Amino acid sequence: MQRRHFLASVAAGALAPRSSYAAQGDIRVFLNEPIGTVSPLLHGHFVEHLGGVVYDGIWVGEESKIPNVRGVRKALIDAMKALGPTVIRYPGGCFADSYDWRDGVGPRNTRPRKNNFWANSGILRKLPDNHVSRSDPNAFGTNEFLRFCKEVGSEPYLAANIRSLPARDFYDWVEYCNSPKGAGTLAERRAAWGDPEPWNVRFWGVGNESWGCGGNLTPEEYSVEFRKFISWTPNYGTPLAMIAAGPNGADYNWTHGFFQQMARKSPGMLRSVWGWALHYYCGRTGKGDSLDFTVQDFYELLERANRIEELITRHWGAMGEIDRDHRVKLVIDEWGAWHNDTTAVAPHHLFGSVPTMRDALIAGMTLDTFHRHADKIAMANVAQLVNCIQTLFLADGDKFCVTPTYHVFDMYKDHHKGQAVRSEFAAPRVDFTVDSKGQSVARLAGSASKNGNVVTLSAVNNSHNETLETSVALVGANVKSAKATVLAGGSMQAHNTFASPSAVKPAELAVSVSGGALRLTMPAASVVKVRVEVA
Ligand code: AHR
Description:
The chain is of the alpha/beta class. Helices cover about 25% and strands about 30% of the residues. It has a 10-stranded mixed beta sheet with strand order 23-22-26-20-19-16-1-21-25-24. Helix 6 links the parallel strand 9 and strand 10 (about 240-250). Helix 4 packs across helix 5 and helix 6 (about 220-230) crosses helix 7. The structure holds alpha-L-arabinofuranose (AHR). The site of alpha-L-arabinofuranose has 10 residues, from loops.
């Protein structure tokens, strides 16, 4: 089909009354129109000392009866390994700007208990003062985190405290992590605690949300702090990738302000910035309950999640006004749906909730957006790994399960290291109303990448109740074979629990190949991946 025809047929479909058609979707993948490599770092994670993320989502302790690898929950390690190597950000979040890394190193019985940044937030207020989520025992610190990363094959990304510690402490942390064996007291301390070899940590965040919990700075003030922290940081032979605390959602003023100030100091200054960290939470809708929501709440949240694309393109445009060669890439190091913690599985799971297929659709749409902008985004980190916002895992004591969001990451790992290619996803949009105002959201969205003779296509059907008869045309290659996988739970509220850990899990989906085109039926509220062999 000619492109003009294709778009015209979509428009005609969009005008048809809802009841008169079986929704149809058309996907076109242009294999000769590369965008950029899908870095595995786009599927990164985020771990903060917050609520139940570290204790006991990750850390159960070496003496625990819960199976563990040097204190870290083994079930989590096994499930993380299956996702393939990526990156994990730590120790925050807002917590990072209150954290002294020295509290989390050395023999555990000598580490101080410290009031956690989040101690008086939300549901934690109801817990005793000495609960681990409020009074942090520091049992999990730098060595434990770096061993965890190594165990699961992911790169660490450490966020430095710039609000309450001077640059000196940042340099010392870099020295502790990266200085050669025996090079000095900090390297010896690292060795004394079991890790003589340097970790060569590459990714360093310079503060977090410096416009808010990270110091309430202006972009001008932050650019001064940033320069102070990154100038002549000792690197011990590891090229350090410095990530600057970027904007909150649509705060374009923060992006303009920082980039202008950096360039004003000296034209080459922006070369010291590896990544510009955008945070975007699509939040919650309706009464904020992760399980009990209406059809309208469902579409409203999907539409909000989809706004991330506009944020990416507009911040990228703002960056490019000053950084004309686009040396600095975006790092979206916090994203996700943030429901109320009414469905948290334990009282210390601050910002915890039980995620459903709605969250899986958000994950699919968001990762697809990152792939489509693989030329602009260097890294992204879903918030947060376990027992928290948009979580991949739920854990409480010896109970553990993966969420629908986990399965999306698992399905989408086939994109890793592929070449993202331009693709078009066309289907009638879904209409809905918010406060009597008409709105709409894409019914069909996705991304495609090519790696050798394998094309990976992923897509969501956002309709809560309609299947989508979808045809896929690959422009630029011949289809040899295709295999499809689907994640659908039979309803938008479908979810996993400790009692039913496999209520939502991937299954095979029928796909037919005829005349070079693929045809498949995407169930309502589903995430689909198609692996196509081409010649
Ligand atoms: O992810 C929870 C919090 O959200 C993080 O600590 C902070 O950076 C953001 O506001």
